[in-house]
Write a structure and sequence with these properties.
By secondary structure, the chain is α/β, with parallel strands linked by helices. It has 15 helices and 16 strands. The chain has helices spanning 6-20, 32-39, 43-55, 95-108, 127-140, 155-167, 182-194, 209-217, 235-243, 267-279, 337-347, 353-363, 366-393, 419-428, 459-475, and strands spanning 59-62, 66-69, 113-114, 177-181, 200-205, 221-228, 232-233, 248-253, 283-287, 312-317, 328-332, 399-400, 408-412, 431-432, 434-435, 448-452. The strands form four sheets. An eight-stranded mixed beta sheet has the order 4-11-10-9-8-5-6-7, with helices on both faces. Helix 5 packs across helix 12 (353-363), helix 7 packs across helix 8 (209-217) and helix 13 packs parallel to helix 15 (459-475). The radius of gyration is 26 Å and the shape is globular. It binds pyridoxal-5'-phosphate. Pyridoxal-5'-phosphate is lined by residues 118, 182-184, 208, 210, 254, 259, 287, 289, 317, 319, 329.
Length: 476
C-alpha cells in the first residue's frame, strides 16, 4: 500500500511532468477545479498539491489568472519519492546504439545550423499549393474524416504514381501499389514480406543508417557489399558473396543518388544486378527515395525496369521531393503484393486521406513537373556552393563527392581525423553533421562525414562551414 499522502503523490506526479518537460515554464497549470474533477480529490487536496509545488519553487500563483509553471530560482527540494528514471528508449545492439547516441546528442544540443538533414529547406517545397489543395479537398468532401480510407491508399494517387513510373521505364500498376508511411514503412513491409528473423540481407556499404536500423529491428543479419561514389555497388564483390556459403535472402539497393554516396548506377550495372539477384534467388528491394532529384531532365531508369522475373520490390517516397511532413511513400511489391497488403493492414491500416488527395491534385497538373525542374536547379546550385565552400575551408587532403543530384555530399577527411570527434566538437557550437561511423557496421567510414545541402546557401551557412574547417584544423 502506498503510505505517501495523496497530495504528495499528485505533487510528485506533476513534478515529474515539469522535469520531463511535458509541462513547460510559462504554461498554465491545471486549475483546482480540473484537478478535483480529473483526480477525484477534494478541494483541500487540490490546494495542497499547488502549495507543495509552490514550495518546490516550480509554481507561481498569478492574481485572477491562475497558477503557472515557473523556473525554480532556488535549488529544488528533493522529491519525497524517488522520481521515475526516464525510460531507456530501447535496448540497442550494433548500429542502433551508435545511431541512437548520435541522434540523442543532437537532440540535446542547441542546433543553429543543421547539415545532417537530407531534406530540402521547407521554403523549397510547394507548401502553399498543398495547403490550398487540402482546403479544397475538405470543402469538396466534408465527410472525409468520417470514413476510413482503403489499406492501399487513394486510387487516384496510385494511378498517378504508376503513370509517372512509366517515364523511369518501370511498369507499375495502380492496383499493385500500396501507399505507405514513407519509404521507411515500405522497406519494413518489403523485408517482412520476404524474410524471417535470422535471415541475411545484403546492403551497400556505406548505406543510409536508417536501413541498418530497420534490419536490426527485424532481427536480420546484415552483409555489407562495398560501393563506390561513381557506379554504386561493386557487382564483382556481390557476385562472390552470392556464390558463397551464406544464403542472402534479400538485398536492399539505392540505385539512384545513393545515400550517402550520391552514386547513380549505370544502366548496364542495374541490368546485371537484377539478373544476378534473380539467378541466386535473392529478392531485390529497390529504394528509390531520391531518383526524382537527379539534375538532368531525363529521368533515371529504375531497377524495376530491368526486372523480367518479378523479383524486384520497388519502394519510393515523396518525403524528400515534395513534403516531408506528409510522410507519404509507396511500395510496388509485384508477386508479394497480397502479402504486403495484408502486412500493411495488420500493421497500421491505410494512410491518412487528406494529404494523398492534396498531392494527387498537384501531381496531375503540369505545375508538378515545373516545380521539380525548379527544385533540381536549386539543388544543383546549393550543392555546388557547398562543395566550393568545403574545398575552401576544410584542410588540405579533404575530398568531396560530386553527385549528379540530390541534397547530399559525402566528405572524406584527411585520415587522422575522427568523424565522431568532429561531430561532437561541431555540436558544441550548434552545428550538426552526420558522422560516417553510422553508415556502416564495419568501422570503415570513421573519417567521413555526410553534409546536407538542402538549404539555400547563405552567409550563415558559409560561416558554419568556416567554423567546421577551423574545428578540423584545430583537431589536426
Ligand atoms: C535512402 C533512404 N531511404 C529511405 C529513407 C526514409 O525515407 P522516408 O522519410 O520516406 O521514410 C531515407 C531518408 O533519409 C533515405 O535516405
Amino acid at each position: 500500500m502506498n503510505t505517501t499522502p495523496l497530495y504528495r503523490q499528485l505533487a510528485n506526479h506533476y513534478l515529474d511532468a515539469i522535469r520531463s518537460g511535458t509541462l513547460k515554464t510559462g504554461e498554465r497549470f491545471p486549475s483546482i477545479r480540473l484537478m478535483m474533477e480529473k483526480h477525484a480529490v477534494s478541494l483541500s487536496t487540490a490546494v495542497q498539491v499547488c502549495r507543495e509545488l509552490e514550495d518546490y519553487g516550480v509554481l507561481e500563483a498569478r492574481p485572477r489568472s491562475g497558477n503557472y509553471i515557473r523556473q525554480p530560482d532556488k535549488p529544488q527540494k528533493t522529491s519525497p519519492i524517488a522520481l521515475v528514471q526516464p525510460l531507456d528508449t530501447g535496448v540497442y545492439v550494433g548500429i542502433h546504439e551508435q545511431v541512437s547516441s548520435v541522434l540523442k546528442a543532437s537532440q540535446r544540443a542547441l542546433i543553429k545550423v543543421n547539415f545532417a538533414s537530407a531534406y530540402c529547406a521547407p521554403e523549397l517545397y510547394p507548401l502553399k499549393t498543398l495547403q490550398d489543395n487540402m482546403v479544397k479537398s475538405l470543402r469538396h468532401d466534408s465527410c472525409l474524416y468520417g470514413v476510413a480510407g482503403s489499406t492501399n491508399g487513394n486510387s487516384a494517387l496510385r494511378s498517378l504514381l504508376a503513370r509517372r513510373a512509366l517515364t523511369t521505364k518501370a511498369n507499375l500498376t495502380a492496383e499493385r501499389i500500396v501507399i505507405t508511411n514513407g519509404a521507411t514503412e515500405a522497406i519494413n513491409l518489403a523485408l517482412r514480406a520476404v524474410t524471417q528473423p535470422g535471415d541475411t540481407v545484403a546492403v551497400e556499404s556505406p548505406t543510409f543508417y536508417g536501413l541498418l536500423q530497420i534490419l536490426e529491428s527485424l532481427n536480420l543479419r546484415v552483409l555489407e557489399v562495398p560501393a563506390s561514389a561513381h557506379t554504386g555497388i561493386n557487382l564483382n564483390a556481390l557476385q562472390l558473396l552470392l556464390q558463397g556459403p551464406e544464403k542472402i535472402k534479400a538485398m536492399i539497393v539505392i540505385p539512384n543518388l545513393q545515400n550517402p554516396l550520391g552514386s547513380i548506377m549505370p544502366d548496364a550495372n542495374k541490368a546485371r544486378l537484377v539478373k544476378l539477384c534473380a539467378e541466386h534467388d535473392t529478392v531485390l528491394i529497390e529504394d528509390d527515395t531520391y531518383g526524382d532529384l537527379v539534375d538532368t531532365e531525363q529521368p533515371l531508369s529504375t531497377l524495376k525496369h530491368w526486372d523480367r522475373s518479378d523479383n524486384v520490390i520497388y519502394c519510393a517516397s515523396l518525403n524528400k521531393t515534395l513534403a516531408p511532413g506528409m510522410r507519404l511513400g509507396w511500395i510496388s511489391a509485384g508477386r508479394w503484393h497480397e502479402r504486403v497488403e495484408m502486412l500493411k493492414h495488420t500493421q497500421s491500416r491505410g494512410c491518412e486521406a487528406l494529404s494523398q488527395l492534396a498531392v494527387s491534385a498537384f501531381m496531375k497538373t503540369p505545375s508538378y513537373e515545373r516545380y521539380l525542374r525548379r527544385l533540381r536547379k536549386t539543388l544543383t546550385q546549393q550543392r555546388q556552393q557547398m562543395s566550393e565552400a568545403i574545398t575552401r575551408h576544410f584542410p588540405i587532403g579533404t575530398s568531396v563527392t560530386h553527385p549528379q543530384g540530390g541534397t547530399l555530399l559525402w566528405v572524406e577527411l584527411p585520415r587522422r581525423h575522427s568523424s565522431m570527434a568532429f561531430f561532437h566538437e561541431a555540436l558544441k557550437v550548434g552545428i550538426q553533421i552526420s558522422p560516417g561511423d553510422i553508415f556502416s557496421n564495419a568501422k570503415r567510414f570513421n573519417h567521413f562525414v555526410r553534409i546536407g545541402c538542402g538549404a539555400p546557401y547563405s552567409p550563415k551557412i558559409d560561416e558554419a562551414v568556416q567554423t567546421l574547417g577551423r574545428i578540423l584544423k584545430n583537431q589536426g
